[in-house]
Design goal:
By secondary structure, this protein is of the alpha/beta class. The strands form eight sheets. It has a five-stranded mixed sheet. Strand 26 and strand 27 form a beta hairpin. The model has no long low-confidence stretch (mean pLDDT 92).
């Protein structure tokens, strides 16, 4: 078997009286199983799969219950299959459209079977109507004869086909091999100083996203570390459930994107003294979107009353193409910030330190994990020196060999093994700094304006929902390129309140970046298009700007 599967099996069998495991079902019906018990269920799933699909075939999972997802993905690996977590429909999803997209996705990954689990069993008829082959996941977990031995697979065999966050009309999946998973797991364990016997991971992250599936489920499963899993719906319904569970289970490790830390900070600031115990939390990963230092500091400040240390949040850089993690910031120290000249950054492409006047601030995201390399190059591929802004490339054992697309396989690496991340950034003393996505940069009067700076300025205005403002390009690539700000607010629909909010947002943006948006659009909560992992979809958001407003 592969090193990765061998590690999962060894962790499951290395039990005893103090065996670690997986807790699911909070807050209504908590249930704990040891990793050995999860492994037994996974062997049952694997046995059913070996009699249903070809060895090496792709299997898709549509479920939200972590208690079913854990044995499902492990069972797929034990059976020698690759696993894909399908993006999940929400209460607002057009199911007919979702089914059409699912058919396209399943075709791209060439899936032979969908494992259907809670709470999506009612979609069985819809899958039938589209001739999508599926099996009931709960039934597979209860299969009467567990698989005796894992199906042998090579290190370069596909383990995960991770769907990207792009349009489902043109789906693309990242091919993660068993070797990729083994390499990134080992690197994260080493860099984060994870201790299977002492650490406890607490997470609500979606398991169809790489940070949730790989970071907070697969890594604990692979090393036999205690894990507590709830769903994103649980978190969004009651954000304080997150710190409550960290305190209840002695959580030491967690992970989330910026918006979650901002939400938790606001809620914790209004909580009663002693309501949580965050004194054991030592590694709170902040990733999946550009790091907002103000959100980090708000979270640590709000958590201080509950024992949270100021060095608990660890900023990171990662992507599905690197399995998950590329860099971690230094442990045991508060988030470090690089303050640079706005003029030098935007006009000359240099991140020159500055202390006053027009500045931009970026979090230092740390050095590459073991086995990873990061390089910054110009458009011709020539390596740039320190503090020169350019294209960020990564290379290493955890980097995907390629993608699966509707047009067939596409390589991800160049001849030297480098992957172009699509991000602009620079290096400082070997640490990575990310400025933003290259395709989203707004070019005005010879200046490179990064959307994240505009968005942070917009969300500083009272009434704008945290994490729900997008800066989008208008007339991209033309001589008259401009931008608009689209945000969510409860004031949407109130003419006078909207007008005042637009004025305040415009002033805040001008103060922050020195340029005026062509339009500010205020929408009701829940209107901004986002990826399944919660990232803003700027291209789709641009379509929400009325021509009259942008004119």
């Amino acid at each position: 078997m592969s090193r990765f599967v061998d590690g999962i099996v060894a962790s499951a069998l290395d039990g005893g009286a103090d065996a670690r495991g997986l807790v699911t079902g909070e807050p209504r019906a908590p249930r704990r199983r040891t990793w050995a018990e999860v492994h037994e269920q996974a062997r049952c799933v694997a046995a059913a799969l070996t009699g249903t699909v070809r060895p090496g075939a792709a299997v898709a999972v549509l479920a939200a219950d972590p208690g079913l997802i854990a044995p499902a993905v492990q069972g797929g690996w034990l059976a020698g299959n690759s696993v894909t977590m399908l993006h999940q429909p929400t209460p607002r999803t057009d199911l007919a459209r979702w089914a059409q997209d699912a058919v396209r996705v399943l075709g791209v990954i060439d899936a032979e079977l969908v494992l259907l689990g809670s709470p999506f069993e009612p979609l069985a008829d819809l899958l039938d109507s589209h001739r999508i082959r599926y099996r009931d996941l709960a039934g597979l977990v209860a299969h009467p004869e567990p698989l005796a031995e894992p199906v042998p697979v090579a290190e370069d065999a596909t383990a995960l086909l991770q769907l990207t966050s792009g349009s489902t009309a043109e789906p693309k999946s990242v091919r993660i091999t068993h070797g990729n998973l083994a390499a990134n797991t080992a690197a994260m364990v080493e860099a984060a100083h994870l201790d299977p016997a002492g650490d406890v991971a607490v997470s609500w992250l979606p398991l169809f996203h790489d940070m949730g599936l790989v970071g907070t489920l697969t890594v604990p499963m692979a090393i036999g570390m205690e894990a507590v899993q709830v769903t994103p719906t649980d978190f969004l319904a009651a954000p304080l459930l997150w710190p409550k569970l960290i305190g209840k289970y002695g959580g030491t490790v967690t992970a989330a994107p910026n918006f979650a830390y901002a939400i938790a900070a606001r809620r914790m600031s209004r909580a009663e003294d002693g309501e949580f115990d965050l004194s054991g939390l030592r590694f709170a990963l902040n990733g999946a979107e550009p790091v907002d230092v103000s959100a980090v500091r708000s979270f640590t400040a709000a958590g201080a009353r509950f024992g949270l240390g100021d060095a608990a949040v660890v900023c990171a850089y990662g992507m599905a193409e690197a399995t998950l993690a590329v860099t971690f910031a230094e442990l045991d120290r508060p988030t470090r910030v690089d303050v640079v000249s706005a003029e030098a950054l935007e006009v000359r492409g240099r991140a020159e330190p500055a202390t006053g006047g027009g500045t931009r601030s970026f979090a230092l995201l740390g050095r590459p994990l073991p086995g990873m390399e990061v390089q910054v190059v110009d458009d011709a591929g020539a390596e740039l020196g320190e503090r020169a802004v350019g294209r960020v490339r990564v290379r290493g054992a955890a980097v995907t060999p390629g993608y699966r697309t509707a047009d067939g396989p596409v390589p991800a690496q160049d001849a030297a093994g480098w992957l172009d991340t699509g991000d602009d950034g620079y290096l400082v003393d070997g640490q990575v700094v990310i400025c933003g996505r290259r395709k989203d940069v707004i070019i005005m009067g010879g200046r490179n304006v990064y959307p994240v700076d505009v968005e942070r300025a917009a969300t500083e205005v009272a009434g704008v929902r945290a994490g729900n403002a997008a800066a989008v390009r208008l007339d991209a690539g033309s001589r008259r390129e401009r931008f608009a700000v689209v945000c969510e607010s409860a004031s949407a629909g109130d003419g006078a309140a909207e007008k005042a909010l637009r004025k305040e947002i415009t002033s805040s943006v001008v103060r922050a970046v020195g340029v005026r948006p062509a339009a500010v659009v205020v929408l009701p909560p829940g209107s901004l298009p986002k990826t399944p992992s919660g990232k803003l979809k700027r291209a789709a958001t641009a379509e929400l700007v009325p021509p009259a407003a942008a004119g």
